Amino acid sequence: MDKKEKVAVILLNLGGPDSLKAVKPFLFNLFYDPAIIALNNPWRWVAAKILSRKRAPIAREIYKKIGNKSPILDQTKAQATALENALNAEDESEYCCFISMRYWHPFSCDVVKNVKKYAPDRMVLLSLYPHYSITTIGSSLIDWAKNAQKSGLDVPYRVVRDYPEDMGFIEAHVHMIQEEIKKIGSLDDYRILYSAHGLPEKVIEAGDPYRQHTENTCRHIQEKLGHPDHAVCFQSRVGPLKWIEPYTDDEIRRAGEEAKSLIIVPISFVSEHSETLVELDMDYREIAKESGVKNYIRIGAIGCHPAYISTLAKLTKAAFK
After folding, report:
1. Model-level pTM greater than 0.85?
2. Could you read off the pLDDT of 113-138 as tens digits, one per residue?
3. What's 167-298's CATH class?
4. Which of 138, 185, 288, 301 could be cross-linked to 296 through a Cys-Cys bond (beta carbons 3.0 to 4.6 Å apart)?
């Protein structure tokens, strides 16, 4: 019997602190990324030190509200298991999923060693960011390439870097929104807000396709739902730079002024983060209440939704075709 070909699938994601003690070093890693702060050293190192020290107390308070850590690793592990099962349901190849995080454990420098031990015939680098940005998957790919080269991991590979218009990804969102619509019966007084993580405007002006990708996803979902009252908006801005607009909190206030109820869809997050569990569920819910928004419904992140997992499996298998 022929030996099965071995394929390593590397799930690339942001990562998050796994304890309150990890918050400050996690933030340092984030700010030290040249894709986030484009300064030469030693200035980038100095900026990362100052910003992480300044931001850490605020971030710790956020993580205290959700169990003293980020839920992202546990949720990514669940996605990896679901994907591995889907890929191995047919027996033409053996697939093994690995998780590589950008700013906290497991780091790519450690993951490449585990992949090397597995000794795959091929690799697929799979983005868990549906929309491309140099600040997210772009940075993760640069980091992976550097560490793979350093460790001598020389295996043919392909990259799935984004999938903003893939139908399984769209269907997962549509299905979850429709489930909520069934509960409320009518969308007459509702506006759908698609809330994506923001970016500084200068990143988009430099040619980053993130905003366009996000809007394309929302357009496809809207075509399926057919509900005209919606807006695409951006959350989680920090620092003095101008970020892409409209801002989610401003759109929530506008909805209140117009006596609208809201369905909030976290469109750029495939797992729950502090941005969904604290910012959307707590901070923005409070803004909605203060602004007179009657009903505030937040759709969950798509996580292990079967349509999303099947999209990831399809994209992985198609990567070498």
Report:
1. yes
2. 999 999 999 999 999 999 999 999 99
3. alpha beta
4. 288
